[in-house]
Design brief:
There is one protein chain. The protein is of the alpha/beta class. The longest helix has 18 residues. Strand 9 and strand 10 form a beta hairpin. The protein has twelve helices and 14 strands. 38% of the residues lie in helices and 28% in strands. Strands 6-7-8-3-9-10 form a six-stranded mixed beta sheet, sandwiched between helices. Strands 2-1-4-5 form a four-stranded antiparallel beta sheet, with helices on one face. A four-stranded antiparallel beta sheet has the order 12-13-11-14, with helices on one face. It binds adenosine-5'-triphosphate. Adenosine-5'-triphosphate binds next to helix 1.
């Protein structure tokens, strides 16, 4: 097995209508790591996953998964990986066991081995008592767990999860996070998961690669990326949007306040010290009779990291997509 479970160099992909989905995307992941590919809708995450799982080809650049080249060694790559697409690939009319046994048989397991593996995986994901039921009767969270189990049938070295918790309720989401964390921790599996949930990236990923417009703009651990940002974040929510930029320029006059970004009624800024900045912010706005709904101070979040590297908030990027 290679030192890097996944490595991409300068991947470029332009779709037929001229949409450049990847624009020189490079990153690498070590073995046994959960890598979060975080980016707003349309950033190029799914395209990256499709290239790494051999479902699509880059126009240029190279990629290796489990030490195999995704173009020249497609078969080896396919055997080394598990892929859980955004849309479930299980048969809703079949039972959980039937789906898993079929999955095993497709990968060449004997019937006995496929049945044994199915039982193991159902147990692993707490689905044993539901194994005999049709998948259409499963809750969203159970279906998703079965999807992940299907991706693991052939004991892959690298598992790709494309937006694994989209559409799940918070409880099912947290449950799946626990499962994925356990997989990587106890079984040495490398996991690449794409997500547009900041919280998911923060909670689940050992390493993060932030994707914006088809490029990686920042890489590191969630904590490392946040701690690179000095000071605190201040969010000021106004009663009326700062349409003419008055509030923005007023805040800009205060010492120790930088990176002021206005989005509708919300202004976000970085300050050296939150405790001293808040009275100063409120004071200057009160002087000018500008009504404020709320002011909050927090340690930098991944949203601030994203803002720092791309110049816009994650939510604004999602809305623009
Ligand atoms: N088959 C396609 N044909 C044309 N354009 C495409 C195709 N697939 C993706 N795109 C475009 O390429 C860009 C990157 O898409 P991609 O699906 O990789 O992004 P993403 O980060 O995975 O977003 P999402 O979370 O919405 O899947 C987007 O602008 C998208 O509209």
């Amino acid at each position: 097995m290679a030192t890097h479970a996944i490595r991409t160099t300068d991947l470029v992909k332009t779709y037929p209508k001229g949409q450049r989905a990847l624009d020189g995307l490079s990153f690498s992941v070590g073995e046994g790591v959960v890598l979060g590919l975080l980016g707003p809708n349309g950033a190029g995450k799914s395209t990256t996953v499709k290239i790494l799982t051999t479902l699509s080809r880059a126009d240029s650049g190279t990629a290796q998964v489990a030490g195999y080249d995704v173009i020249r060694e497609q078969d080896q790559v396919r055997h080394a990986i598990g892929y859980v697409p955004q849309k479930s690939s299980s048969d809703p009319m079949a039972t959980g066991i039937e789906n898993l046994v079929l999955g095993g048989r497709i990968y060449g397991l004997s019937r006995t081995d496929a049945v044994r593996r199915a039982a193991e995986l159902l147990e692993r994901f707490g689905l044993t008592e539901f194994g005999g039921r049709q998948v259409k009767t499963y809750s969203g969270g159970m279906q998703r767990k079965l999807d992940v189990a299907l991706g693991l049938v052939h004991r892959p070295q690298v598992l790709f999860l494309d937006e694994p918790t989209t559409g799940l309720d918070p409880e099912a989401r947290a449950d799946l996070w626990t499962e994925v964390g356990r997989l990587a921790g106890s079984e040495g599996l490398t996991v690449l998961l794409t997500t547009h949930y900041l919280e998911e990236a923060d909670r689940l990923a050992d390493q993060l690669a932030i994707v914006d417009h088809g490029k990686i703009v920042a890489e590191g651990t969630p904590e490392g990326l946040k701690s690179e940002l000095r000071g605190d974040s201040v969010h000021v929510e106004l009663v009326d949007a700062d349409t003419d930029g008055t509030v923005r320029s007023l805040l800009g006059q205060l010492p120790g306040i930088t990176e002021i970004v206005a989005e509708g009624k919300v202004l976000r800024a970085r300050v050296d010290h939150g405790a001293t900045a808040v009275p100063a912010v409120l004071g200057i706005l009160e002087d000018k009779a500008i009504p404020v709904s709320a002011v909050t101070v927090s340690r930098p979040s991944l949203d601030d990291v994203y803002l720092n590297y791309t110049g816009r908030s994650f939510q604004a990027a999602e809305e623009a997509a």
